[in-house]
Specification:
The protein is built from four helices and no strands. The protein is mainly α and 93 residues long. It has one domain: Metal-sensitive repressor, helix protomer (Methane Monooxygenase Hydroxylase, Chain G, domain 1), CATH 1.20.58.1000. The mean pLDDT is 85. It holds the Pfam family Trns_repr_metal. InterPro entries: Metal_Tscrpt_repr, Metal_Tscrpt_repr_sf.
Amino acid sequence: MDEQANAHRTHTAIVKRLKRADGHLRGIVEMIEAGRPCLDIAQQLYAVEKAIAQAKRTLIQDHLDHCLEDVVGTLSKNDRRSIDEFKDITKYL
């Protein structure tokens, strides 16, 4: 399958965010190996966890915006409401 055909508008930003999280995670490993306080490590792990969760949410929402629209096409305002609610609820993943 062609990678460009699957590229969504947010993929570049997601890759950038994940690379930053990867570097951050490597820093956490170094913190553990250096014997840094658990509170400091936990705070940094929390930050990485949030960054990855945001990347996942962005990917899912972008996929829905990109692919779901292609599948459902033009809908009446009433039918559109269900699709919009479905997309909105993904914010809570």
